[in-house]
From TrEMBL:
Coiled-coil stretches noted in the UniProt entry, renumbered to this chain: none
Record's keyword terms, sorted: Amino-acid biosynthesis, ATP-binding, Cytoplasm, Glycosyltransferase, Histidine biosynthesis, Nucleotide-binding, Transferase
Name this protein carries in UniProt: ATP phosphoribosyltransferase
UniProt catalytic activity: 1-(5-phospho-beta-D-ribosyl)-ATP + diphosphate = 5-phospho-alpha-D-ribose 1-diphosphate + ATP
EC number, as in UniProt: 2.4.2.17
Pathway(s): Amino-acid biosynthesis; L-histidine biosynthesis; L-histidine from 5-phospho-alpha-D-ribose 1-diphosphate: step 1/9
Database matches in InterPro entries: ATP_PRibTrfase_cat, ATP_PRibTrfase_CS, ATP_PRibTrfase_HisG, ATP_PRibTrfase_HisG_short
Gene: hisG
Function in brief: Catalyzes the condensation of ATP and 5-phosphoribose 1-diphosphate to form N'-(5'-phosphoribosyl)-ATP (PR-ATP). Has a crucial role in the pathway because the rate of histidine biosynthesis seems to be controlled primarily by regulation of HisG enzymatic activity.
Subcellular location(s) of the protein: Cytoplasm
Gene Ontology MF, one: ATP phosphoribosyltransferase activity
Domain notes: Lacks the C-terminal regulatory region which is replaced by HisZ.
Oligomer and partners: Heteromultimer composed of HisG and HisZ subunits.
Family: Belongs to the ATP phosphoribosyltransferase family. Short subfamily.
Length: 234
């Protein structure tokens, strides 16, 4: 009888479940209906943020779900720890990972990355004459790139939240953050002065996984595409 070699992995990669990384926090509730339409039913506590579990089986033994911080979805997928994921275009723009392919716009988590300041700019204020500006943001790369394109050097104050406090407390002249309704800016005495980019959530895929497991990964992309088509037909 053939004995398994100690060098043979217990679960060959192509038999291991595909891992779908989902963002905890505000998009998770919008992701639920998309999963439903794609026929994916994770263990019920995946949406319970009080649950300490991070990896969840689904109704399909070929798919497990992990729940991670929104910025980390891109990291898990870029490194192939998860083969597919759902994350905001803001996160993709910030990291610009070559390993990530984003085939589908899921149309959820709709907002924009914008610049906001304490007072509206005078119409004749010539920002082209700025050479440097201090910017509070959790998107240092997006902010730096945006201002660099205008010949302005952005000095970044990297915050993970509550950016809106920065201008009034003298931490930065302006902020780069997500805006949806504008109510957070308004409540903190800021006005949106420029939209850098619109944002929605995307289905993302690890490029190597798509090459090495084209059938499995391609089938999941097709399931999400069909779910979107169904939404469009509603
Ligand atoms: N106001 C908003 N409206 C719509 N979508 C948003 C809004 N804010 C964030 N998003 C989307 O949801 C994603 C996650 O945002 P969320 O605010 O939950 O993350 P976070 O607070 O940065 O997470 P963390 O817990 O890691 O700090 C963002 O990357 C973006 O794509
Ligand atoms: O324009 P609005 O509708 O007010 O939305 C914008 C707010 O939403 C996001 O924060 P979130 O509420 O996700 O909390 P966070 O600061 O913890 O990320 C973002 O960072 C803004 O603060």
């Amino acid at each position: 009888m053939d004995m398994p070699s100690p060098l043979t992995p217990a679960t060959p990669a192509d038999a291991a479940p595909v891992i779908l990384a989902l963002p905890k926090g505000r998009i998770l509730s919008e992701v639920g209906p998309v999963l439903d339409r794609a026929g994916i039913v994770p263990a019920t506590d995946y949406a319970d943020e009080d649950s300490r579990r991070l990896r969840f089986p689904t109704n399909d033994p070929a798919l497990d779900v992990v729940r991670v911080r929104p910025f980390d979805v891109a990291t898990f997928v870029a490194h192939g720890a998860a083969q597919i994921g759902i994350c905001g275009a803001d996160v993709l723009m910030e990291f610009d990972y070559a390993e990530i392919y984003a085939p589908l716009d899921l149309g959820i988590g709709r907002c924009r990355v914008s610049i906001a300041e304490p007072t509206p700019r005078e119409p004749d204020e010539d920002t082209a004459r700025w050479s440097r500006v201090t910017v509070a943001t959790k998107y240092p790369n997006i902010a730096q790139r945006h201002f660099a394109q205008r010949g302005i050097q952005a000095e970044i104050v990297h915050l993970n939240g509550a950016m809106e406090l920065a201008p009034s407390l003298g931490l930065a002249k302006l902020i780069v953050d997500l805006v949806q309704t504008g109510s957070t800016l308004k409540a903190n005495g800021l006005v949106e002065t420029e939209v850098i980019a619109p944002v929605t959530s995307r289905l993302i895929v690890n490029r190597t996984a798509l090459k090495t497991r084209p059938e499995a990964i391609g089938a999941w992309i097709a399931r999400f595409r069909a779910a979107l088509a169904e939404t469009a037909g509603l």
